Amino acid sequence: MTALWEARVKMTGSSAMESASVLGFGPFRLIPSRGLLLEGDKPCRLGSRALLILTALVERAGETVSKHDLLARAWPDTFVDDANLRVHVAALRKALGDGQAGTRYIMNVMGRGYCFVAPVTRSDSDTQQPAVRGNTQGPSNLPAPLSRVLGRTEAIDSVAVQVPMRRCVSVVGPGGIGKTTFAVAVGERLLAVYDHGVWFIDMASVSERHQIPFAMASVLGVSITSGNPVPSLVGYLRDKHLLLLIDNCEHLVDTIAPLVETILRQAPNVHILATSREALRAEGEWVYRLKPMEAPPPVDSLTAAEALQFDAVQLFVERASASLDGYRLTDADAPAAAEICRRLDGLPLAIELIAARIDLFGVRGLATMLNDHFLLVSEGQRTAQPRQQNLLGALDWSYRLLSSVEQTILCRLAVFQGDFTLDAAVVVATGNGVSQEQVYSGILTLSSKSLITTDVTGAAREHHHRLLHVTRAFVAQKLAQSSDRDRVVRLHADYLCRLFAQAEADWEKTERQVWLASYARAIDDVRTALDWAFSPQGDAAIGVALTARAIPLGFQLSLIEEVKAWLERALLHAPLLAVPQPLAEMRLNVGLGRLSHNMGLQPGHTTGFDRAIELSQALADPAYRTEPLIALAAFNLTAGKYGAGIALAREAHAIAEASGDAKAVLAVNRIAAQVHHLNGDHVTAQQLATAVLDYPVAQIPLAYNTMPVDRQVSMRVVLARIAWLRGSPQQASALARESVEHAASDSAFSLCQALAMAAIPIALWSGDDAGAAAMTATLDQQASRVSLAFWRSWATAFRALLRVRAGIDMEPPKLSGALQSETFATFSAELLEPVTLQRAENGEAGWCRPELFRAQGEWLLAQGAPGAAKAAEGLFNNALELARQQGALTWELRAAISLTRLSQRRGQSSIGGGLLASVMQQFRDSTATADMVEARELLAQVAPVENRLPQASRRRESA
């Protein structure tokens, strides 16, 4: 008990103290008579004045205690400014975790004082006073923490177990990660372990190597009587059982390491816990690398409760509430708080500094203005070490400990916005006085000094290194001021061009997710390099080449709007290059053409494709000529021009065959399978789709995948639709599910195609409106998220159709484009439009032409015009014949249903019933689709029981 506390106790003589020895609230117990605050059974280290203020508030819980009374309690007979009270109240709130997870203890009553608002229990010391370990603890000079340690309980416990076992443990990590706070917490855990205490020795203020043993001796109270303090220091420690917590060793590590070894050898019961930005590399040392605090991953939506599960957000909120009285994280602020913590890499010092500015900018304002300058110069506590008052000081401390070559390498690495490999580092850091060997060595040194982090857990084939955001911000400023900057950024952009040339080669032999794990890391570097390349100081030729090569990555990451901006910018520069790049320019035109259509451009716009075909004619390799033809065929497919698509596919196939490029043939066959199916040639389409699926290559080459959709998705879409049309609804549903499953781990393009072209139509044709509704919601979400207007229009139309079918709304869907109009006419004859019917009559509708004729007949019958029955019969028979030619058994069944109903109206039921029964017999499974249910009900009406189905069909039904 301190003298100050004893004096205050004697002066107050509080009746509350006399009547209740223990005051409990939340997980805390306050024992006023002993000047002790416990969290559980662990003492909380508070200053004596803060403890007096807390006692005054808890004694009068629920009342407003004036500032005057609190000042008089903590500073009797002394005039102090109100600011002193605010500082101590803020420290109390931090220590109690006030504001965390909705818990409140101390409220500010504006203009009056403070009120303790938590429930308080009072108990007798004789009956319920908790056990206190303080009586068994050895002496200590551990600094009292000004705030709680958040989110690291397990790590603290783990290291606390290791220290007595290992004898020498180093806590290593970058500046600002909280090594001191962590180590002090470990020391707190071990107070009862060491008979002669836990002693904190701060080396931050020690600048000369010879001062190190004197600093230790001073803390331990050892008298030095000679010029060499080490023997006296070791002699004192030889028979002691204690823990030395040596803090901030990095600038003196070469001297501290041998001294630590000497102590460990000659004082067998002395243990060492050190903190440093690099390991001591002392004999017997066990290194614990302190990790950043965990921040929430990027998600579409995040609530406050979800965000507060992460310790980085907890720290942010705790520091924010200390700066802005009463602040609580809301659902509206949660995404911004999570973004701040992610951008700060979970670095505690950075989070604390930024959170302290919440009173000026608010959470969302902080997220918006969190630029490098603001981050580096934000000020912390005035009483902190200069290197901890802001990040600039913390980083400058580490930077000055590097050699000039290491400084140069670190600055050059600032050009990487994300992860980088060792090979990438060599490319940008070598040259102008730095050798390749020095880069290799420098990377190891910078990693050991916690200035570079290394990921060895990812799916990528190589280890990836990165700079923490705050480190990059610091050294990027130095790179920008150096004469080396222009050379380094050019090397960086050149490297990315080569990297994505390798990505193209890797694509066809690598599984998609592995490919993404390797190359998606570079997306921020691509952005930076493109901005430089197209700037006045850049090189547009590099920008054009890099854009063309990075398109597939942008599409795989569903960066639709961004990729469109890349393409438009590159196409402005491509025609102006001194040395033309026809291949790159061709791929830029193809990409923009495909992308613009998916974003809602009118189908008739083919200017980009025409230019791409023109450019391809000048390329040496004839296989390149297939690329724009494949893309234009796909464009014509979605525009409903199936005949034109087939012609383009045939032209591309001839070129691919002549070039001897088997992979080009594979790519042509993929688009050919799609256009043949939509043109109504399901037999050819099925053969092609099956062959493409079975081809032994991981991926179709990127050259033919400007907007890549995995063949595992696109070919299953084709096969699912064909299975439905050919009378296998169970197989169709299974294939559609498989396509969606593959697409879910692919791209937004893939998932939209799988849903809109297979899964949802098959559900609607089957009569599963609930399933279709759920998948439509997913389609709309995906298409909206990545700005795919083409697919979003499908979602809008599906939703309108479902509302009509449910009787909620009678407004029919607004349809756009031939393929969409054709598809929706197969859901309801009422949606048959004149233009769509004209396409059927001209032979353009292909895949659904039989159903469109049938729908026209049903529409005529519904109108009841003279001669409608005869005209309808002709249309139904035409539909029946076309369906048989296509092998489209489902359309044949629908035509048979229509003909049977017409026969029923004419009193010729037996004729229609025989036709219907013969068609039903051909179905490969008896799934209760809407069409099959209707057919069975109709057959029961028009034919005697024994003649409803041929014998074989009856046996299958009974089975």
Q: How does this model look, in words?
A:
The protein is α/β, with parallel strands linked by helices. Among the domains are: 3-131, Arc Repressor Mutant, subunit A; 137-289, 3-Layer(aba) Sandwich (Rossmann fold), CATH 3.40.50; 819-959, no CATH class. The chain is 59% helix and 6% strand. It contains 47 helices and 15 strands. The chain has a five-stranded antiparallel β-sheet with strand order 4-3-2-1-8. It has a five-stranded parallel β-sheet with strand order 10-11-12-9-13, with helices on both faces. The protein is elongated. The protein starts with a helix and ends with a helix. Mean pLDDT is 84; it is low at 1-20, 126-136, 376-389 and 950-959.
Write the layout of secondary structure elements.
Elements: H1 3-12, H2 15-19, E1 22-25, E2 28-31, E3 36-39, E4 42-44, H3 48-59, E5 64-66, H4 67-74, H5 82-96, E6 106-109, E7 113-116, E8 121-123, H6 125-128, H7 153-166, E9 168-172, H8 179-189, E10 198-202, H9 212-220, H10 229-237, E11 242-247, H11 253-266, E12 270-276, E13 286-289, H12 304-307, H13 311-323, H14 334-343, H15 348-355, H16 358-368, H17 372-377, H18 386-389, H19 391-399, H20 404-413, H21 422-429, H22 436-448, E14 453-455, E15 464-466, H23 469-480, H24 485-507, H25 512-519, H26 523-533, H27 540-556, H28 560-573, H29 582-598, H30 607-616, H31 626-638, H32 642-659, H33 662-678, H34 682-694, H35 711-725, H36 729-744, H37 748-766, H38 769-785, H39 789-805, H40 818-825, H41 834-841, H42 849-863, H43 868-886, H44 889-905, H45 909-921, H46 930-942, H47 951-958
Helix pairs in contact: 3-4, 3-5, 5-13, 7-8, 10-11, 13-15, 14-16, 20-22, 20-23, 21-22, 21-24, 24-26, 24-27, 26-27, 27-28, 27-29, 28-29, 29-30, 29-31, 30-31, 31-32, 31-33, 32-33, 33-34, 33-35, 34-35, 35-36, 35-37, 36-37, 37-38, 37-39, 38-39, 41-42, 42-43, 42-44, 43-44, 44-45, 44-46, 45-46
